[in-house]
Amino acid sequence: MSAADPALGAGYEDPPTRVGFFTDTSVCIGCKACEVACKEWNGVPAGDLDLLGTSYDNTGGLGADTWRHVAFIEQRRPPGTEAGSGELRWLMSSDVCKHCTRAACLDVCPTGALFRTEFGTVVVQEDVCNGCGYCIPACPYGVIDQRRDDGRAWKCTLCYDRLRDHTEPACAMACPTDSIQFGPLDELRQRAGRRLEHLHDLGVEDARLYGHDEADGVGGAGAFFLLLDRPEVYGLPPDPVVGTGELPRMWAAAGAAALTLVASAVAAFAGGRR
Amino acid sequence: MKEPRLVPEVEPTSYYGRPVIKAPVWKWAVPAYMFAGGMAGASSVLATGARLAANPALARRARWTASVAIAAGAALLVEDLGRPERFRNMLRVAKPTSPMSMGSWLLTVYGPAAALAAAGDLLGLPRALTRLADWLAAAAGPVVATYTAVLVSDTAVPAWYGARRELPFVFAGAAATAAGGAALVTTTPMHVRPARAFALLGAATELGASQLARRRLGEVGEVYRQGRAGALDRLATLLTGVGGVVTWLWGRRRIGAAVGGASLVAGSLAKRFAVLEAGIQSANDPKYTIGPQRRTVEPGRTGAVADAPPR
Amino acid sequence: MTPVLQRLLTSWPVSRQLLGRDRLGRGPAARSSHSAQLSPRTASAQEVVGSICPYCGVGCGQRVYVQDGVVSQIEGDPDSPISRGRLCPKGSASKQLVSGPSRQRKVRYRRPHGTEWEDLALDEAMDIIADRVIATRRSSWEWEHEGKRTRRTMAVASLGGATLDNEENYLIKKLFTALGALQIENQARI
Amino acid sequence: MAECHPVGFQWVMEAKARGATVVHVDPRYTRTSALADVYVPLRPGTDIAFLGGLINHVLNEGKEFREYVVAYTNAATIVADDFRDTEDLDGIFSGFDPERRSYDPSSWQYEGTVAMPAAGHREWWNGAGSETASSGRRPPARDETLTHPRCVFQLLRRHYSRYTPELVERICGVPRQQFLQVAQLLIDNSGPERTSAFAYAMGWTQHTVGVQSIRAASVLQLLLGNVGRPGGGILALRGHASIQGSTDIPTLYDLLPGYLPMRRAHDHQGLDDFVAGASSRTGQWGHMRAYLVSLLKAWWGESATPENEFCFDYLPRVTGDHGTYQTVQGQLDGSVKGYFLAGENPAVGSANGKMQRLGMSNLDWLVVRDLAMIESATWWLDGPEIETGELRTEDIGTEVFFLPAAAHTEKDGSFTNTQRLLQWHHQAVDPPDDARSDLWFYYHLGRIIREKLAGSDDEVDRPVLDLVWDYPTVGDLDEPSAEAVLSEINGWDASGRPLSSFTQLADDGSTACGCWIYCGCYADGVNQTARRKPGAEQSWVAPEWGWAWPANRRLLYNRASADPAGRPWSQRKAYLWWDEDRRAWTGHDVPDCTTTKPPGYQPTEGASGVDALSGTDPFIMQADGKGWLFAPAGLTDGPFPTHYEPQESPVDNLLHTQQRNPVRRVFSRRHNRYHPSGGASGAEVFPYVVSTYRLTEHHTAGGMSRGLPYLSELQPEMFCEVSPELAAERGLEHLGWATIISARTAIEARVVVTSRMASLDVAGRRLHQVGLPYHWGHNGLTTGDSANDILSFVLDPNILIQESKVATCDIRPGRRPRGAALVELVESYQRRAGIGPETGVSNERG
């Protein structure tokens, strides 16, 4: 049982081992099979048809109708970091919900529409969500969003229905180069470590893991990445933090403010009965 | 032959300037609710204070202000939901980790209490019951007025999470200003002096806390001065200031109290919209998320730079 | 406890929070009955058919799931040694290809000089097309060309298809060669 | 490959993970380049210069795989002394006839004998030449020391001697250092212990020198010993599910199933004359008569008897080039009246869309069978020419039938994928409403035609009426059984039992077989193509999944994976070897030679067919069993690949005064004008190189992708890709509009400014490129102008494929003019460039 098994923490009797994604962006070929396979399996509505001009990315970002988003970054490699590779570098990465160990969306959801599954993943229940919108600004990665003319919040479910039938999520199955790897999270973390070492041995110094560390602001992500540049280059936050840990201090501040309010009232009346 | 870098290293980069987090999707109904909730909560405190200070005229009006405001607030909340017909799901679970869940349960206590406190006599309820309702409303009121600050702070929005220690005081101040202002409008000048003081104390708290928040926010604080948020914030400060001066100078006269009070109420309302707008602006510009986080993670190290196509 | 109250209590997540291990309402207590019995449509499909992706020449294996006479899912076939269950974006969109908005289902006919499409029954269309082939072939038949025997018509031609099956290409080649129409071509030359 | 064959690219990634070096050579930095170790930008149309440079480098460094080259290629063979190379005649080989713009290859022959080609143009040896064809009895003269001045090896060295790294840099725009890096990588990864592979697609094929580009890679790979060995070879990445199948069972004018050549019109040529003229006595083609007779029996069954040469006379004869681009001109000239389109969209996919559409407007009738309402079915209503007024709907007399087609999930059938693998797809559901399979359409069309001609005693109709056309039909849609057709393709013996190998085919009419190379796909009456034994339960060659032609062999010419004595060249690369105990070849695959023929076997005098090949002749299709570094016949444009500039090029040929391929097919027609090239006046009016290509998210002419929401949103608009330098030079704005103009027409596209489009230094000047994806057309969810509209008809002389990978153009900001103003714009460009009927047609410079 890994140190932080969120399913156990959420109250499941004997949950199956926690599963997740490891996305090795160093082998991503930007084909977007994951985007299509996800939409086809989950019946996610198609978006509109406008050229964004951001390299080959016409999806833009994760949202209610884009549960997978392949980012494209055309960049000049800085001098001296990599031997033998050309000037130009084209980074590609398939972004997805992080299914965090400590999930802000799950914590703040007032209706229990968002819940921790037995597999340790985080899922929005479409039959419960009343579209209060709280999870949307709460997510430190900007993953979940409200769907226009539907009102509810939507995001990747890590194919919760497929998991219940021991089937691999649609995007991981489709991914032609196994950039998206699905499996027990512990196993994926070890594999990622070995892959990182291998890349460093090859001189790919920029390679780094992102979201693998349980000590980070969300207790480690259920879907973590091997990136070839700083996370913000891909649109990812360098140090995402879930606010729940700060709640006690926030409530304390609120209490103090409430007392200030009462004090003000008392002061207001103390100045004379009239 | 290695090309020099294209883009200066200092400026934190992003993915084509796109937001990192998602801005809140809340429309006008949410700031309006925060205003209404604040006014209601503070009015309940004012009402009980008035009762204890044997100022029944003020107490009665404040109670009615509270119950009307919270009723309107509840309606606003339901209206803002993506699926209003599922508002009951707010009480489906009780989640301590969710300020909105705690707030919903709080409202189920405070709402009826404020209503009974106001309508108890009319309905001929036993005195003790309305008295209990009154105490309950007064106890819950201040939390109703400030829990919304916790709600917005417990998000990834830089302008909110960054000001999580000060926002409750901003909200408390704004609540007092609104309640005091409302009393000034609804109550005859002779009974309203405490309300005026309450409002002015509130205004002071709100403005003071806002300054503190801005200083703590550092770079992120600029959203409160720029764009729509800046405009709304200046409007709020202006209205609150004018309201304060008018009530201070002419608060005793009926017209003065009414105008001053209304201006204070409007200032409090504008403040709520300013806070929402500032949150949205700080969420939509990636630098407010990336900049501070980049400094906490790796102060010195930098990597390759995005070669975004020329705009 | 009355059944109604009892059912309410067990179905109300808050009570499940209090009674169960999920005190904070973030796990099993919050899970709805709908979510509890979710299962993938691939598990309940009536039939699974082995197929091959119709798009490019790699020849990825596909599994076609059928429910009530309709394709309910098309995904990769893990058994294929070529693709190992994987698909590209086009392959993954196969279900939308076969049952999406772009599919034409009715015969359309445009009369010479016509300005719009008209309806035409399929068997009637087949009959007319056969007549056209026979007539055009007869009017353009060539026993010889520059004194050499050719036994052909140069008036009937066809284009396609690399997207067709071998069996279909075989019938086209066999039929048209027998008709003497040798101008048969396809994407292999484009 | 990552762009258009992403799932195939997983194997490149596997190789890279195991330490392979991936080199990507492409004018544009694509998703393949992003994952490659080395990316080499080069000017479109200069592949032969680049490959020639590599050949020259290998030879100069003496890094060829000497033992392999001597034993398995014709390097040692001595060529007749009347052969003259392009180095002697400044860009022309001996035997060139300027009037007929063709070569007579008789001067390219081996000394003292005539070698027959295995494929390509074989009609030279019909009629007059037939008696010399059989004279291949004496093996050609050879000098195994490879020093004889007229041995192929020395001719090869001399042919490429000027393809130096400096010349490659000036022609291709590839920096010298980078060229040498690639050359070193290739050398280091070839030889007994290591192999290198090439993968290519239309980037090589769609040129006026298309076939020769691929030949150049074959020569290079033969020199390095990378053919017939695991991890070697040249993989063609086919764009459609069954492009390989549609050439094996060719809906092509010049071939019969199994690459038997189509008959050419000759005076009273019988079946035996045909076979003698079209095949060599030695090598696999020595059995051509059995293959042809079996085919005729499959088609005309009982009517095909020895007396009537098995209905050999029923076959229509070819009298020249009858490719699709000739057919379109036949439509324009009024000779072609009826046209069938089966799952193809020429109005967008073929070159010069205007001529495609104008041609169809001249037809009497047009039948379009497709899944979606493609542009080739609606040009009369909303095509570009309707917009410019060049056509008016009411004036177009073409009768158009659109018949909806069944999808791959709605019919049984087999595709042949890019690795020669036949794979079966099973019907899952019935086709909706009027949609039918093409098997249904052509079977019932044939049935109805035969019923209408039933009473005819006109000799014209004999071939149709004698046709074997009695396939069983199933279900309420009367769908013909695809397995019945497959079993006919597989063939049966006199008693109707399915055959299991083409070695069983007889030339006496006792066997029938629809396609000899597919014989065995229905062995034992079992549909071998439908085998789906999981890959995990098989060897890495996975022979029990589907069925590969020929004989389920997965790697062709695998005899070359063993040394002349039959031992693997190395343990690491062992694939096939001679097992002395069992006196048989064994290994990981079906041997590509007679299993029991020992390595030391020498043919007896007068032996024929494969028995005429020695134990060290891996290339069994060739008459001499050797890999051809030098092609004495079979190619219309020369025995060695030679660099020529494309039809339209901004620079002069730096290698020869002969600017372009002298025997390319050009057509001087009103809507097919060419641009002046190189230093010629007017070339500066079209200063930029334009190339067309595909994107991962769409499929060829868009018929199967632009109607799908999930694909259209991924690449939602037609765009052009330009370098920042070109954008600055022409004032093009990122995400703005641009108009791309050629002498054929002008199209518009959104502008994507990206440093992935390289600007190159070529012949001392800075050359910019315009990149155009060609998926778009005017129907579907995402619509746009078709890139192929700006291209011309100019064809490779061997296979008549159009040159769509390189042309010249101009580009300017803003949207294109509408209506008649568009035609005026194009005509103004033609005037400014001085373009006339003769421009680019002749062989002189310019």
Distance between the termini of chain D: 35 Å
Question: Approximately how much beta-strand content do the residues of chain A carry?
Answer: 15-25%
Amount of helix of chain A: 25-40%
Number of domains of chain A: 2
Shape type of chain A: globular
Explain the overall architecture:
- The complex is a heterotetramer of chains A (274), B (311), C (190) and D (846).
- Chain A has 274 residues and is an alpha+beta fold.
- Chain A folds into two domains: 6-241, Alpha-Beta Plaits, CATH 3.30.70.20; 243-274.
- In chain A, 27% of the residues lie in helices and 17% in strands.
- In chain A, the strands form four sheets. A four-stranded mixed beta sheet of chain A has the order 8-1-10-9.
- In chain A, a hairpin with a 5-residue loop joins strand 4 and strand 5.
- The termini of chain A are far apart.
- With 311 residues, chain B is mostly helical.
- Chain B has one domain (29-286): Formate dehydrogenase/DMSO reductase domain (Formate dehydrogenase/DMSO reductase fold, Up-down Bundle).
- Helices cover 70% and strands 1% of the residues of chain B.
- Chain B is built from ten helices and one strand.
- The longest helix of chain B is centred in the last third of the chain and has 31 residues, at 254-284.
- In chain C, strands 1-2-3 form a three-stranded antiparallel beta sheet. Chain C has a three-stranded mixed beta sheet with strand order 6-7-8.
- Chain C folds into three domains: 3-36, no CATH class; 41-99, N-terminal domain of TfIIb (Single Sheet); 140-190, no CATH class.
- The model of chain C has no long low-confidence stretch (mean pLDDT 95).
- Chain C is elongated, with a radius of gyration of 29 Å.
- In chain C, strand 4 and strand 5 form a beta hairpin.
- The chains are: A alpha+beta (274), B mainly alpha (311), C alpha+beta (190), D alpha/beta (846).
- Chains C and D meet through strand 1, strand 2, strand 3, helix 5 and helix 6 of C and helix 11, helix 14, strand 9, strand 10 and helix 17 of D.
- Strand 4 of chain C pairs antiparallel with strand 11 of chain D, so a sheet runs across the interface.
